Target: Cytochrome C and Quinol oxidase polypeptide I
Amino acid sequence: MRGVALWFFASAVVYVTLGMLFGIWMSASHDHTLAPAHGHLNLVGWATMALFGVYYHVVPAAAQSPLAKVHFALSTLAVWFMFPGIILAIQGQTEILAIIGSFAALLSMLTFLFVVLRTRAALA
Ligand code: HEM
Model:
């Protein structure tokens, strides 16, 4: 694994490590209030980004496109805004970070859809 595929996969492993530590902290403190932030860090940060990494590894032609880097940037932005954003939203402080993170996640997935279809068309 190398390039964008590795960036996605390595980031995903970092996020799930943080997500697990956060889960252990929630369990130990018997305070599950922030469980949605933990769930999103693990599902958007780990599961989704690891899948992207596997795709770019299996389809190296897709990883060559500059759009793959845009896709990585958007996914990273999504996790970085969504995790603290959900915490702040649950605490009743502000929803703006969660909103930015959500739209970055959506844009990231639409970029991925475009990459998948364009690569498919180029290889067909
Ligand atoms: C060391 C590993 C982990 C620990 C200690 C842990 C702990 C927890 C705890 C205490 C809760 C709250 C449960 C409740 O209040 O009902 C929770 C919820 C959740 N966890 Fe984990 N977790 C771990 C790993 C993961 C992983 C790897 C994933 C996903 C790939 C994940 C996904 C979720 C989801 C989706 C929820 C529900 C969130 C919600 O209710 O909004 N967890 N976890």
In short: Residues 3-123 form one domain. The pocket of protoporphyrin IX containing FE is lined by residues 16, 19-20, 23-24, 26-27, 32, 35-36, 38-39, 42-43, 46-47 (CB under 6 Å). The mean pLDDT is 97.
